[in-house]
Specification:
The chain is mostly helical. It has helices at residues 9-14, 24-64, 86-129, and strands spanning 72-77, 80-85. The relative contact order is 0.21.
């Protein structure tokens, strides 16, 4: 991981100008930033959905703690519900929660890596073009 380098407003103003030529590598960086930005929005939506799923599973787990041990519990698998003993439902719920937590962690890590790369691209592009480019998201 490269350390982050932030440009001061003075660096930004002095770098580049209106007449700075856009090279192929600059355009590639701009295109990459754009793709990463779009991917960031998708990952954020996926993360929100997984976090909501995780909260729902935690809420259900709390409710199951109040259930009677001898009671059969309806458990949703796909589009169907099956009746399971409480202990089996709790076990399956714990496995689902663990899986969702892993997915949330992976999404958070992907977002972090993506944002780091976007920051590096911003630094490089602002250093080259200054205020003549706007990469604020």
């Amino acid at each position: 991981m490269m350390p982050r380098r932030m440009l001061s407003k003075e660096d930004e103003a002095s770098a580049g100008g209106e007449d700075t030529e856009v090279r192929r590598e600059d355009q590639d960086k701009i295109n990459r930033f754009s793709r990463l930005h779009a991917r960031e929005a998708v990952l954020e939506e996926q993360l929100k959905a997984k976090q909501k799923d995780k909260e729902d599973l935690e809420e259900i787990s709390t409710e199951l703690e109040l259930a009677d041990e001898d009671e059969l519990v309806p458990y949703k698998i796909g589009d169907s519900f099956i009746s399971l003993p409480l202990s089996e439902a709790q076990s399956m719920l714990a496995a689902s929660t663990e899986q969702i937590e892993g997915e949330v962690s992976r999404l958070e890590e992907s977002l972090s890596d993506l944002r780091e790369e976007m920051q590096q691209l911003k630094v490089a592009l602002y250093a080259r073009f200054g205020r003549s480019i706007n990469l604020e998201t």
